[in-house]
Amino acid sequence: MNLHEYQGKQILNSFGVDIQRGYVAQTPQEAVEVAKKLTDETGTSWYVIKAQVHAGGRGKGGGVKLAKGIEHVEEVAGQIIGMDLVTPQTSAEGKHVHQVLVAEDVYYPGDSEPSEIYMSVLLNRATGKNMIMYSTEGGMDIETVAEKTPHLIFTEEIDPSVGILPFQARRVAFNLGLEGKAFKEMTKFVTALYTAYEKSDSSLFEINPVLKTSDDRIIAVDAKVTLDDNALYRHKDYAEMRDLREENATEVEARAKGLNYVDLDGNVGCMVNGAGLAMATMDLIKQAGGEPANFLDVGGTADAERVESAFKLILKDPKVKAILVNIFGGIVRCDRVAQGIVDAYKNIGEIKVPIIVRLQGTNADIAKELIDNSGLNVHSVIQFQEAADKVQEVLS
Ligand code: GDP
Ligand code: MN
After folding, report:
1. Of the candidates 13, 178, 286, 369, which lies 20 to 30 Å from 293 by C-alpha distance?
2. What is the rounded distance in angstroms from the CA atom of residue 43 to the CA atom of residue 271?
């Protein structure tokens, strides 16, 4: 689950990470109110107004703007709230901006040497360790840095069973070329950031930029946070941060029905039980010259009701030209699933795209008979390869 910048900063702050402070606002008028509050608390007179959407690169798209004085806040917030923000990380239609973060300007005017640092904490799956990735080249996208100047990216691996050790935090500060107060502040920052990542059960914390001011403060200016969905049950307060407006509507609906669905760009919808089989099925579709339109794991209890819900989800996607159902009957009986498909077909009404069903396992033969005798536009096959051939046939 992804968070907004302001939510990520709240979590960071609760673990003692120094952040660029701010308040979220839904309207330009509210932006003025919170700007006043911010001035009371921080003394700032310049504000940075930032679109809160689940996408990076907002600055480039005009979603981050400076208001040089309280009198400009309403106008600037008005320009950003309601816009469809297009960034290198959004689709061409962009993301609708419902709210902005009104934050203190932490780039002091006339400051010749604020420096922008990149820092992220994530899991290195290859080593099974957490990893702090950092660079002196903050502010721009890290992919470009990785491509053009890979030697300017450092990593520090943290053993999750031990946690971050003081010498590791010092090594980060040292590699960033910091000295004196900034060095000490950075070791505190890194330690608090790692703790926030670990204690919140996140899979990513990306702070770009971390700002070093000329008076040696180290501040998180941005925050991109991804929480691990599987750990949300023990973070009820974070779970409430979910913003459904930012998520794919079909994926939201699938989650409510307990289906594991990910929207993709292809033309073949798939319905599979088990994540591993779903991955193999997507490979098979590609091999047959199609592209998967989705990942859908209906889970171990592929009963008639779930089969029908799954069909309805897949059919919402206008790009779908065929549907491949690939179910292995272990605990679940194939004839039950087949009956579910036949019922769903009748309940949903006319399904215009061909359906290829491969049922293998317990009672597969009875299932095939059921489908073949149903008189519906459903092709039943038993072998994996037959399914691929059939997909190819209906697509051509
Ligand atoms: P992103 O473009 O979505 O990554 O959004 P960021 O939060 O990283 O902001 C984009 C850029 O806006 C940063 O790289 C900074 O250069 C700039 N920015 C952010 N906060 C401030 C601020 O307080 N003052 C000034 N002058 N610029 C800021
Ligand atoms: Mn950023």
Report:
1. 369
2. 57
